[in-house]
Amino acid sequence: MAITAGDSLNSVAASQQQTLATNYIDFTSDTTKGWAQQYLPDLMEKEAEVFGQRTISGFLSQVGAEEAMQSDQVVWSEQSRLHLSYVGTVVPAGDTNGTFEVTTDIDGNSMVGSVHGIRVNDIVVIAQAGLVIKALVVETPESAVVTVEPYATAALSTLSAGTATLLVIGSEYGKGQSYSDNTGTHSAERRTALTPTFKSYTNKPIIMKDYYEISGSDASAIGWVEVTGEEGQNGYLWYLKAEGDTRARFGDYLEMAMLESEKTAANSAIGFGDKQIRGAADGGAGAAGTEGLFAAIESRGNVTSGVTGVNAATDLAEFDAILAEFDKQGAIEENMMFVNRATSLAMDDMLASMNSYGAGGTSYGVFDNNEDMALNLGFSGFRRGSYDFYKSDMRYLNDKATRGGINDRAGSAAIRGVIIPAGTSNVYDQALGKNLKRPFLHVRYRASKTDNRKMKTWVTGSVGAQTSALDAMQIHYLSERCLVTQGANNFMLMK
């Protein structure tokens, strides 16, 4: 079944740069001249809202938090994995011993020299091509190569020289043996303590601005049409509508920028060029960008092309693959899902097919603490395995005037949704010098005791407060903020 749009569907143009009294119907024009004077117009005075609720804000307020910052950048550190698992090359030297050369950790991070955590007397599991052996580490020189001896007879000879995975599962010592005791013939061996490692990430806030302006004369004009703004403004003054639209649009910009923005690449020529900054040419500096949610997940998280709605059974297998990937990461059991309409329907069909076939008594309707609240907020809950998911349609991904229109042309690059872990994670705050619990996703805005730049609004001009000689009213909006996406390995981007 094909669906086509009518010739006049969505025919209302986007907002112009300026809305003034000249945009009102002119009953003195050649086409309407004298009409208004002769006939009482049957005027529908209420402005029609053909696009419904047009704002898309609310995503970050539902899943994130906001916190002040006082520096040009925010730095946070994420802990490494607790357990020691590595990928490397195994070289059997015979039935009784062999070596394992560490190349990367289990996540693919390069291990240079002896920075790995494998130590003398460690019990390790080595896997290669369907074979698994257990061994004891007997030598760890100052290099990436460690010597192991198998517990089973002739075990190492079953392995071939090549790539293998090693996991430390514990340790074994003899009676009375201390950490510093020699191990066999390896006289220089000593078990050392492990130092936790972490990786630091940074993000910088961007300054966002906009303003609305109307002349003093137009600000006092009364219209025939009653207007209603997104921020609750209503009346017969057009500037109430226009200012409300500008404010609502800026609020959406704050959210869209946190979703879509990217950091400026090192070789990028982007800058402010010859634009005047504080009265002097900037010379191309600045425009450092900021890391938005989508960029953070693509860089440090997971991306899936599954659950498309083509086949409910296939979608289930693809969704289970998502769970398997979460199992490999932090296994955060509560997650928020924000998806477009097509993906939402695909998931509904997937779950419905499971119910019809009685798939393992899967439970739905989560939110045991307050299910009514979840429903009122537009979320539906379901459980798969040990994971709870709270699904909601994301207007930004559907609206033709926002990401929905971009997705129509983006092909495989279209973004269909995000899966975000709920709750908090432990991170090391370098500014405060201590571990803190923070939401996985939160906004940092620039603020101090003297100035709060979370969302600034002020009025200049001759209208109202009369702050300058400008015969107009200018309403200014400013925010300086960035997004912190911590533990991105627990996030999933659906493309």
Question: Please, could you describe this protein's structure?
Answer:
By secondary structure, the protein is α+β, with helices and mostly antiparallel strands. It has 2 domains: 46-80 and 196-495; 83-174, Thrombin, subunit H. It has helices at 35-38, 59-63, 216-219, 238-260, 293-300, 312-328, 341-356, 371-376, 395-398, 403-410, and strands at residues 65-69, 74-79, 85-92, 98-105, 122-128, 131-139, 145-150, 162-171, 198-203, 206-215, 227-228, 234-235, 276-277, 280-281, 302-304, 334-339, 380-384, 387-393, 417-421, 424-429, 434-439, 441-446, 456-461, 472-485, 492-494. A hairpin with a 2-residue loop joins strand 5 (122-128) and strand 6 (131-139).
Can I get a quick summary?
This protein has 495 residues and is of the alpha+beta class.
Strand order of the largest sheet: 3-4-7-6-5-8
Q: Write down the overall mean pLDDT.
A: 77
Largest sheet: 6 strands, antiparallel, barrel
Q: Report helical residue fraction.
A: 10-25%
- Number of beta-strand segments: 25
Distance between the termini: 24 Å
- Percentage of residues in strands: 25-35%
Structural class: alpha+beta
The number of domains is 2
How would you sum up the global shape?
elongated
Low-pLDDT segments: 34-40, 42-52, 276-282, 356-370
Query: Cα-atom Rg, whole angstroms?
Result: 31 Å
Count of alpha/pi helices? 10
